[in-house]
Every structure is written in structure tokens, then in C-alpha cells.
From TrEMBL:
PANTHER family: ABC TRANSPORTER ATP-BINDING PROTEIN. This is ABC transporter ATP-binding protein. Residues 5-234 form the ABC transporter domain. Transmembrane segments: none annotated. GO terms for molecular function: ATP binding; ATP hydrolysis activity.
């Protein structure tokens, strides 16, 4: 099956000569949740804007749902729903009116049943006759999603969907995204909350200074680049690391009560056995062992700071 989004040798140079995207190549499969991560100014919004037909391509080729976004603009755009970062809000229009109007923009016939369904799913049904300006910030964000879903798009872009929303709404959004995926909708989200990518994404792409530096299955990424840490709480403090352990990746805590051993997740655990044996030989007693895996956040910070 062809990918739902296909980006080939995409370059973007802004009018002032700034190169925001440099030879981007990326395929996103139907029904996957893809998280695009990158520091501020990396090019995430530029990439999304190009795929959604809001910004022009400098060179390269982009297809959405099989349609070329330049040659087949309307078809490509119809297949996409976009929840943008910025809230355009102060409106006298009603919730129902705004969502119905959005659907009409894509040339789709009215579908009150569909609009009722999405307003109910997004807990906006009770507010359907309210003016947008009277909604709370969280409700306005739900409305943005309702508008993006109004024309039943195959692909949904969420640009920083949960920036500044409370925990409850964040959970609701995650549930909603999962439900959409179950229906076969392809979802691309950008986020600064790495825990969001960790929780939601099937695959992760990292963009830095306009280049995709990594695309990887989330689970593989975590096992490939993650580190594990073993902490041994000692019965009696040490003043220095014993010379028998000098070659091991071991640190001693300031108070001397903890030995911290760090190793790659993929590495087989021979080093741990060796460490414990050496401690036994040296009569160093410990009362507790803890292990911890690095989070996606630690992996990400390591990647973008390289
Ligand atoms: N219209 C423009 N003209 C010139 N440069 C621009 C324009 N729009 C964006 N840029 C530059 O392109 C780069 C990428 O911006 P973009 O908004 O795509 O980043 P981002 O990854 O979405 O950042 P953030 O996480 O802060 O939203 C930045 O250096 C930005 O200053």
C-alpha cells in the first residue's frame, strides 16, 4: 500500500533566503500515529504547512493520500484536517455554525449527523449554540479539533495539540486520537511534551535545523538509544571507587552510599554480573538495588544536543 504521506527531497527556502527545510524524505503509513519532535525553530510548522498546502514548496515532491499537493491541490487538501497551533478565536459565530462552515469549505454536503457526533465526542454538544467568544480556552481547543474533523479527513495534523491545556483535556485528546487511529485515520502530531510522544506515537521523527536526523519505531528507539541505570545502596559508605572497578562505568554518589552503574539497554548484562561479583569479592555489602531506564526525553535531549 502506498504511504498516506510521502515527502521526497523537499526543500524550503523562505523569501529572505533562510533555508528552513533541507532535503526532507519521509513516508508515513495509513493509520499510524507519527510524532514529529524537534527544538524550537527546527522546521516542524514549516513542514506541516507545506504538506497542508499553506506554504509553498521550493523544490521536491509531496503527496497526501496519494495526491500531489501541488498538481492535485484540492484533492490533497480535502484529505487533510489541520489543528493549528494558534487559536483564531474572537468570533460571534456559534460552535455549530463554525463547524458546519468548515465542512462546507471543503465542498462537502451538509452532514448534521456527523457534526453532532463529533461535537458529542468532544464534549461540545451542550455548547453548540454558544458563541465561540464565550467558550473557555480548553473548549476553544476542542472546537479547533471539531473543525479539523468536520470534513472527515483521512489525515489529521495536530500541531502542539496539548500546549497549555489541563491534564483532563490532555487525556481526552489522547483518547480521541487513539479512537481516530482505530478508524484508520493517519495522525501526525508535533509536541514539546515528550511524554506525549512516548505515550501516543507508533513512530518518532526528530527534526533539527531543517533536517530529519532520525525516524524510528518508538519501541526500537527506546531500546536502541536508551540507557539503563543500576543503583546499589551500600550498607557502609565508600570514600572512593575501588580500583577493581576503575574500568567499569561506575560513579559514586557524594555521600558515598550509592554506586551508580550505567549501561546500554541493548548490551547484554554481563557487566552487571561482573560488578556484583567484584563487590562480593571486596566484601562491599549493599542493602538495595534499583534499575531505571532512560525516558524518551533523555534520549531526545541527547540527540538534539549532539
Ligand atoms: N516566513 C518566514 N520567513 C523566514 N523565515 C521563517 C519564516 N517562517 C519561519 N521561518 C524560520 O524557519 C525556521 C523554522 O520555523 P518553524 O516555525 O517551522 O519551526 P518549528 O520547528 O515549528 O518551531 P516551534 O517549535 O518553535 O514552533 C525558523 O528558524 C523560523 O525563524
Amino acid at each position: 500500500m502506498q504511504p498516506d504521506i510521502s515527502v521526497k527531497h523537499l526543500n524550503k527556502v523562505y523569501a529572505d533566503g533562510f533555508r528552513a527545510l533541507n532535503d526532507i524524505n519521509l513516508d508515513i503509513e495509513r493509520g499510524e500515529i507519527f510524532a514529529l519532535l524537534g527544538p524550537n525553530g527546527a522546521g516542524k510548522t514549516t513542514l506541516i504547512s507545506i504538506i497542508c498546502g499553506i506554504a509553498n514548496i521550493s523544490s521536491g515532491e509531496v503527496k497526501a493520500a496519494g495526491y500531489d499537493i501541488v498538481k492535485d491541490y484540492r484533492k490533497a487538501r480535502e484529505s487533510i484536517g489541520l489543528v493549528p497551533q494558534e487559536l483564531h478565536t474572537d468570533s460571534f459565530e456559534t460552535v455549530w455554525g463554525a463547524v458546519s462552515f468548515s465542512r462546507g469549505l471543503f465542498g462537502k454536503p451538509p452532514a448534521p449527523d456527523h457534526i453532532e457526533k463529533i461535537l458529542k465526542e468532544l464534549s461540545l454538544w451542550d455548547k453548540r449554540n454558544n458563541r465561540i467568544m464565550s467558550l473557555s480556552g480548553g473548549m476553544k481547543r476542542r472546537l479547533m479539533i471539531a473543525k479539523a474533523l468536520s470534513h472527515e479527513p483521512q489525515i489529521l495534523f495536530l500541531d502542539e495539540p496539548t500546549a497549555g491545556v489541563d491534564v483532563e483535556l490532555r487525556r481526552d485528546m489522547w483518547d480521541m486520537v487513539r479512537k481516530l487511529r482505530e478508524k484508520g485515520v493517519t495522525i501526525i502530531l508535533t509536541t514539546h511534551y515528550i511524554e506525549e510522544a512516548e505515550e501516543m506515537a507508533d513512530r518518532i521523527g526528530v527534526i533539527r535545523q531543517g533536517e530529519i536526523i532520525l525516524v524510528e519505531d518508538k519501541a526500537q528507539l527506546m531500546s536502541k538509544l536508551g540507557k539503563k541505570e543500576l543503583r546499589l545502596h551500600l550498607q557502609h559508605p565508600l570514600e572512593t571507587i575501588p580500583r577493581q572497578l576503575a574500568l567499569e562505568p561506575v560513579e559514586l554518589s557524594k555521600d558515598g552510599y550509592e554506586l551508580i552503574y550505567t549501561f546500554d539497554s541493548q548490551q547484554e548484562q554481563a557487566g552487571v554480573a561482573r560488578l556484583l561479583r567484584t563487590l562480593g569479592d571486596l566484601d562491599i555489602e549493599y542493602r538495595d538495588i534499583q534499575t531505571r531506564e532512560s525516558s524518551l526525553e533523555e534520549i531526545f535531549v541527547g540527540l538534539v544536543n549532539e
